[in-house]
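Exam prep: given the inputs below (a chain plus zinc ion), describe the expected output before reading on.
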Amino acid sequence: MKAIAVAPGEKNSIHLRDIPKPSINEIAAGCGVLVRVLRVGVDATDKEINDAEYGAAPEGDDYLIIGHESFGVVEEIGENVERFSPGDYVAATVRRPGDSLYDRIGLSDMSSDEEYYERGINRLHGFLAEYFVESENNLAKVPGACRDVGVLMEPTSIVVKGIRQAFEIQRRMQIWQPKRAAVMGTGTLGLLATMILRLRDIDVVAFGLDQMPYKNGELVEQLGGRYFSVKDKTLGESKEQYGPYDLIFEATGNSGVAFEATEHLGKNGVLILTSITGGERKTEIPSDKINLEFVLGNKVMFGTVSSNLTHFQLAAKDLSHAVSQFPGWLNQLLTHPVKGLEEYETMIRLLESSNDAIKIFVEV
Ligand code: BGC
Ligand code: ZN
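Solution:
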């Protein structure tokens, strides 16, 4: 079968490869599920892997099949599979357990190991292929009503984890009812964060670079949120009118924005950092002021990465709610379909140069 692979460590090594079709017997204890891949989303991580800035091949292989945002249909199941039947739509989690205590209790997304295992990213092959096999323990069901937007499961799970962790942390407040949120960045994660916060009836002000008319800004408004270009209004300027912010979700990919946001968080507020910033940017910040306000205001800032099966299952619920509450909204995120695995060069070109793309995905 066909798959899209790279040679990790070698710049722009993306290529199409012929590999054996996997079998459910590769998974122990009759728990294997064979999934026919329908769509796979791609993001900046895939671009970085092809740029040889990130990613590692599985031990013993000199190539890595990429793709970590899966969506497919179950074709065959092992004899002990209980939760799935052929024909079910599914998405697979990305992280696999390492050795730390957290890995051992099923929270591999919270692994404290130095090196981790992630399908399509680090030391495990990914999903940009015609088929993959997985243990049923790493698969979440995608409701039929969400099949058109099922490829958004993985990014949604990332956002769900971040927001859920915020609520977990805020249990320290005994009664925390966030009313106003700011979302920094209106890429896929920022838009999905806006959606999830709006599903919880939280007021959202989202910020991006572009000025209206701007598709992503309109998408925010369709959810009943507000959109500002930072050229017109900064987070700080918005605070008087729309803040103080109980929650800020940072998803710009720019660490400077993350630290600017620390200055505009309300008392008892929580700032969620999701940007993976591989660069070497340095930012000057008023550290005394920020530190003082964090201390006197009992504020929290935390980082969040990856997600586990629980987050995927919650993502399926949120996607279902969004499909009924905001009909057609999620479909608008699927801006750039790539027709077939053979079109891997188009896929990379879009990742490198398409400014108006929200979600680029391969129709396998
Ligand atoms: C993926 C996450 C992963 C992270 C770090 C992101 O692009 O969506 O699942 O944990 O990269 O490798
Ligand atoms: Zn990703």
